[in-house]
Structure formats: C-alpha cells, structure tokens
Design goal:
This protein is mainly α and 111 residues long. It contains three helices and no strands.
Length: 111
C-alpha cells in the first residue's frame, strides 16, 4: 500500500507514518533500561546511581538530535513538496551545519 500525503488519511495510514518514530523512541528507552540492568547487576549500586544521575543530561543532549532529525526532515520535505529543490538543499545544508556547530560547542563546554 502506497501512502501519499495528498491522500485522505485514515487511522491505518496515520499509524503507518507514526510507527517508525514510536519504535525508535521505544528502542531508545529500552537502551536506558538494559544499560541500567547490566550496570546494577554486574558493576554495583554506586555506578548504577551515577548512570541514573547522568542519563537525564544525556537524553537532553540527544533530544537536540531528535529535534534536528524530525523537525529538519519536515522542513526539507515541505520544500520538496512545493517543488523547491534548491531551497530544500539549502535547508538540509543548514541543518547539517547546525548539528556540527552544536557538536563542537558541546565538546568545548565538555558536555
């Protein structure tokens, strides 16, 4: 079944668009659970507490990556849908530059 944004949306088509994002978030959350399981069982309680203290910071940083990926793909897709291929390329380049600058600045701040 081909899904196009110009078609009438049903719940089935909506789920087809949203399932990959939901699965990605579930797998990201499972990473945290599995990490905590192995650290607590094989390393100890104090390192497990350290992981739990640091994990919100790590997820906060990762949220910027999710934001760039999800929001950026929507912006680029909207430009491509309008037939503005050059503008879509410029927006994609801007997103890549923003991600690089964000990465360099977080390294300088030692986050």
């Amino acid at each position: 079944m081909q899904v196009r944004l110009s078609d009438h949306f049903t719940y089935k088509k909506l789920f087809r668009f949203t399932i990959p994002t939901v699965m990605m978030m579930i797998l990201t959350s499972m990473y945290t659970i599995v990490d905590g399981f192995f650290v607590s069982n094989f390393v100890g309680k104090i390192p497990f507490a350290a992981v739990n203290l640091v994990m919100p910071l790590i997820m906060g940083i990762a949220s910027f990556g999710f934001m760039i990926g999800t929001g950026g793909s929507a912006i680029v897709s909207a430009s491509l849908g309008k037939g503005e291929e050059q503008r879509a390329r410029e927006e994609f380049s801007m997103l890549i530059k923003f991600a690089i600058i964000l990465g360099i600045s977080s390294k300088r701040l030692r986050l």
